[in-house]
Write a structure and sequence with these properties.
Elements lengths: L5 E5 L3 H7 L4 H22 L3 E8 L7 H24 L3 E6 L6 H13 L7 E8 L1 H17 L8 H5 L12 E4 L18 E4 L9 H12 L15
Helix pairs in contact: 1-2, 2-3, 3-4
The structure holds 3-methylbut-3-enyl trihydrogen diphosphate (2 copies) and magnesium ion.
Length: 236
């Protein structure tokens, strides 16, 4: 089996984690940010090439303004606490989604972190921020239509289409993990997950540990990935 390169995580369950301890939902998000640090450092140590984390969906704007505001303050909390460590670990920050509509302060913090870490050669820590899978596909289709009509793009095939997606420079997603027992994709990486292995765990994101990540990776290596073909042993 090929080595795992790209893991994507739907970090879910912060609110329920807080509720269980009779705390406001924001406490769950705060704890979730600490987990991002722990899991990112560990994944980098494991030699994972890219870790994509769903931080905020295009649908999350529907939450109460107070919670949205708090979620928008998380980039500042994360990068002001951990940017030094990210640099020391040679981790490269990237982003998919859109900074349009994101408050100016959070936008600047993201763009600064991306700029500061752009020459790092370790794991790509890719945040899906204000990200929606359908919006990404529609945007790709719109841009292709423009390029085709002005002659700068030829006939469309899968490879060409993938080059219009925000993940164009990233390896294929090998493994998708969703925490907190929700069994859906919630508009995450709809095109990219076509052949990813998926692990859904009951653990809430603030409780997710490096051992849990090991367990998910272990499950990945025990799956028979066929991509529509047959395993070697099935060839006779
Ligand atoms: C995930 O936790 C964080 C974001 C969606 C930003 P939730 O806030 O969705 O937590 P639950 O699902 O309500 O427990
Ligand atoms: C998905 O979680 C989005 C992120 C983790 C950022 P949600 O909690 O928003 O998803 P739903 O509402 O349960 O589908
Ligand atoms: Mg949720």
């Amino acid at each position: 089996m090929e080595k795992i390169k790209h893991i994507a995580i739907i970090m879910d369950g912060n609110g329920r984690w807080a509720k269980r301890q009779l705390l406001p939902r924001t406490f769950g998000h705060k704890k979730g940010v600490e987990k991002v640090r722990e899991i990112a450092i560990y994944a980098n140590d494991l030699g994972i090439e890219c870790l994509t984390l769903y931080a905020f969906s295009t649908e999350n704007w529907r939450r109460p303004a107070e919670e949205v505001n708090y979620l928008m303050s998380l980039p500042k909390i994360f990068f002001s606490s951990y940017m030094k460590e990210i640099m020391a670990n040679n981790i490269k920050i990237q982003m998919i989604g859109s900074l349009e509509g994101v408050p100016a302060e959070a936008r600047k913090i993201f763009t600064d972190a991306i700029e500061e870490s752009k020459n790092n050669t370790g794991m790509i820590l890719n945040f899906a921020m204000n990200y929606g899978g359908r919006a990404e596909i529609v945007k790709a289709a719109q841009q292709y239509a423009i390029d085709y009509s002005n002659g700068s793009a030829g006939p469309l095939d899968e490879e060409l289409f993938a080059s219009y997606l925000m993940t164009k420079d990233l390896p294929e997603v090998d493994l998708l993990i969703r925490t907190s027992h929700e069994l859906r994709l919630s508009n995450f990486l709809l095109y990219q997950l076509a052949y990813s292995e998926m692990v859904f765990t009951d653990t809430l994101w603030p409780d997710f540990t490096t051992d849990d990540l090991d367990d998910c990776i272990d499950q990945f290596y025990h799956r028979g990935r066929r991509f529509g073909g047959l395993n070697e042993t099935e060839n006779t």
